[in-house]
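In the lab's daily routine, each protein ends up as an entry in a very long ledger. A line of letters takes care of the sequence, but it says nothing directly about the fold. The fold becomes a row of whole numbers, each drawn from a learned catalogue of backbone shapes. The protein below has been through that process, and both of its lines are reproduced in full:
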Amino acid sequence: MLIVSLYVDDLIFTGNYTLMFDEFKKFMMNEFEMTDLGMMHYFLGIEIVQSDVQIFVFQKKYVRDILDRFQMHDCNYVNTPIECGLKLHKDPKGKKINSTLYKQIMGSLMYLTATRPDIMYFVRNLAKEYS
């Protein structure tokens, strides 16, 4: 089996047969101008660390970029993403927010759930309550 993922001008592939990797890579390099970067370390904001027995995926740099982008690099961190039992409600008399900025923050958090499923409940609640 060979699994190929293509995004704009980035291509990654994986599978279960080394000879097929080599044949696929040779074919693609003959057809297209390509550079083999070896084992994947970074793809679309996701960092990858691989060994013979395990693969770690995380978005440490992406989180730092989010905090910088939304001017939160000096924020306090917590171990749990939401207080247990907390109910979020719209305040009809509350201050209006920039909806474009809010959507950018939510989109960034939604992409972060790819490697942080523990924040999915929190992000879902924010998206639901304030959309």
